[in-house]
Amino acid sequence: MRLTYLLPALVLLATGCGLRRVPLDVLEKLPYEAKIELLEAENDLALAVDRLDEARAEVARARDQIRRGKDRYSAARDEVGAAADQNSKEVAELAVVEADKRVEWLRAKQKVNVREEELAEQSLVCAQARYEVSRLTAARKAKLEGSETLEPEKFESQLKRCEEDYAALKEKAKETGAEAETMRADWDQARSALAKKTFDARASPFVE
């Protein structure tokens, strides 16, 4: 089954949006040549669906990273009480700070991931709106019955509103990203201090 039939339903399920759509009964007699012209818009839809799937998967992965980060923090605190000498205690205390900063960074990173998920959702809505504009253009070009009653301005308007909403979300994402970078710098500093104290034996450069 072609994307022409699958994607509209998939997008509506994914976004739950009430977009203005070209009625299917208008498109039933769309000529083959016109359907070919819709391929680019269909591909954009498919890419938007993939992007949303990836964004949601990243949110899930980060959730697991936060959980492991909390475990690491708890283990580091246990090390402080179990330290046999002053040097071991100092290392353990640095490990606590590093683990704490790691969790703060991961939480900030998750906020970025959530913003990316919101952007992906909005991008999918815009892809659907753009697809409807393309379908209406094709239907009117083919002079299909019923297409003359549909107003292109309204379809263009919903696309414009969607793109404006996307731009606003993108600005918010930039702010969230800047906050996350600050948290990342704090974690890097704590990690470097622990690495220096242990001659690089502790404080992996990777977020676990």
- Cα(first) to Cα(last) distance is 41 Å
- The strand count comes to 0
Name of the CATH architecture: Up-down Bundle
Q: Structural class given helices, strands, pairing?
A: mainly alpha
- The CATH superfamily appears as Arfaptin homology (AH) domain/BAR domain
Tally of DSSP helical segments: 6
Query: Number of domains in the coordinates?
Result: 1
Mean pLDDT: 90
β-sheet strand percentage: under 5%
Q: Report the biggest beta sheet as strand number plus sense, adding barrel if it closes.
A: none
User: Helix coverage percent of residues?
Assistant: over 70%
Q: Assign the CATH class.
A: Mainly Alpha
Computed over alpha carbons, the radius of gyration is 25 Å
CATH-assigned fold name = Substrate Binding Domain Of Dnak, Chain:A, Domain 2
Order of helices and strands: HHHHHH
| Shape estimate | rod-shaped
Low-confidence stretches: 1-16
Which SSEs are present, and which pair or pack?
Blueprint: H1 3-15, H2 24-27, H3 32-37, H4 39-82, H5 86-141, H6 152-197
Characterise this structure:
With 208 residues, the chain is mostly helical. It has a single domain (40-197), classed as Substrate Binding Domain Of Dnak, Chain:A, Domain 2 (Up-down Bundle), CATH 1.20.1270. It contains 6 helices and no strands. α4 (39-82) packs antiparallel against α5.
Q: Short description, anyone?
A:
This protein is mainly alpha-helical and 208 residues long. It has helices at residues 3-15, 24-27, 32-37, 39-82, 86-141, 152-197.
Please tag this protein with its features.
single chain, 208 residues, mainly alpha, Substrate Binding Domain Of Dnak, Chain:A, Domain 2, disordered N terminus
